[in-house]
Amino acid sequence: MQDENTRIVVTGTGAVTCLGNGVKTYWDRIVAGESGIDTISKYDASEFRCQVAGEVRDLDISAYMPAKEGKRLDPFCHYAIAASDEALNQAGLSPDNTDPERIGTYIGSGIGGITTLNGQAKTLHSRGPSKSSPLMVPKMIIDMASGVVSIRHGLEGPNLGMVTACASGGHAIGEAAWVIRRGDADAVVTGGAEAIIDPLGLTGFCAMKALTEQNDTPEKASRPFDHDRDGFVPGEGAGILVLESLANAKRRNAPILAEIVGYGLSGDAYHITAPQPEGKGAVRAMQNAMKQASVSADQIDYINAHGTSTPLNDQMETNAIKHTLGEEQAYRTPVSSTKSMIGHTIGAAGGIEAIACIQSLNHGVVPPTINYETPDPECDLDYIPNEARELNVDHAMNVNLGFGGHNSALLFRRGE
């Protein structure tokens, strides 16, 4: 039996998404089944195979810091700052009420400052090395989201930037929980941030033929588990959680939104981009999370799937869920992909989607998979098609899988 120093609870959440900024806006709109995906507006994408994305459109960093200071940071750090501010405000956590050396910062990103990298490469080739920015490296490196949040709030505990591609946010949260559980911190600000809607990022994913080409109807382009899915839609944003030991949260009388009861991770050891066809790595991650939580298959009330809207992932993940829960129980368990509404936010996905799980625990509603129109015989689970569903949720699982064979599963229980 874990004591209150080793039980890990969520006391704050913050979100920046293409559906708007703030957890309430994000939640209200995904429950309504709204799509935040549209034609790319940040630049002319007419020559690209994919011309749609889930862009963050209304975040003004000058609302958080002087504009000059904001220019010294890449957009992925802007998103991390905004989401962290919201999460810390809800949690009421600060160096005033918890020893700053006991508050950590673990924020993941799959790609980091690609906007900075692309811009500086153009400067190098057009104007020469003497015109390169001295801020290029600190703006570009992935750990800077964790760094600037730590600096902004005076958080002096364990500080790490997690990089496991599309599983980065999930792994950051899981590892942050372990930091607290092993006694190295009392609280950790954690999650993921990503800003990949840049021509260089789009070029790379288009060249792989990983992205959708359904450009005429952007709002329908992301269609996880649907027969006519043809690739993922790139998205951006941030999802941040404040984790604390139950003892620290109770001492502060903090809001307890959920408890992390299980975390599983694994490696496919198979291919640099393709998932292991039978989903063996995903199965191990989910099973390990359930084993850690001492939770059986029939206790999983909802799964927020990785659900990328790619032909390979969605079929594999369907099979992995069947192997994890047993086929009979898998057919009874509601599964949805919120990527149908916000796109694939890469390293931010674990944080943003974990928030959807936490909201489901607290509101008794599970979000839908929109654009589910033509069933795929190979994807035959209950994907909560097109409309949210009222459901009593005691345990919710979030699954994230990344290039390189990185797998993460987080299991949340309703808070006390």
Describe the structure.
By secondary structure, the chain is of the alpha/beta class. Helix content is 34%, strand content 19%. The protein contains 14 helices and 15 strands. It has helices spanning 23-31, 67-70, 75-91, 114-127, 136-140, 144-153, 168-181, 199-207, 246-252, 280-293, 311-325, 327-332, 339-342, 349-363; strands spanning 8-17, 20-21, 38-39, 52-53, 103-108, 159-160, 187-194, 237-245, 258-267, 302-304, 335-336, 365-366, 389-390, 395-402, 406-414. Strands 1, 2, 5, 6, 7, 8, 9, 10, 11, 14 and 15 form an eleven-stranded mixed beta sheet that branches. It has a two-stranded antiparallel sheet with strand order 3-4. A two-stranded antiparallel ribbon has the order 12-13. Helix 3 crosses helix 6 and helix 10 (280-293) crosses helix 11. It is globular. The chain starts with 7 loop residues before the first strand and ends with a strand.
In short:
The protein is built from 14 helices and 15 strands. It has helices spanning 23-31, 67-70, 75-91, 114-127, 136-140, 144-153, 168-181, 199-207, 246-252, 280-293, 311-325, 327-332, 339-342, 349-363; strands at 8-17, 20-21, 38-39, 52-53, 103-108, 159-160, 187-194, 237-245, 258-267, 302-304, 335-336, 365-366, 389-390, 395-402, 406-414.
Give a quick account of the main beta sheet: strands, pairing sense, barrel closure: 11 strands, mixed
What Rg do the Cα atoms give? 20 Å
- Mean pLDDT over all positions: 97
Strand content: 15-25%
Q: How many helix segments?
A: 14
Structural class, judged by helices and strands?
alpha/beta
What are the secondary-structure elements, in order, as H or E?
EEHEEHHEHHHEHEHEHEHEHHEHHEEEE
Distance between the termini: 16 Å
Q: Please give the share of residues in helix.
A: 25-40%
Spatial shape = globular
How many beta-strand runs? 15
Uncertain segments: none
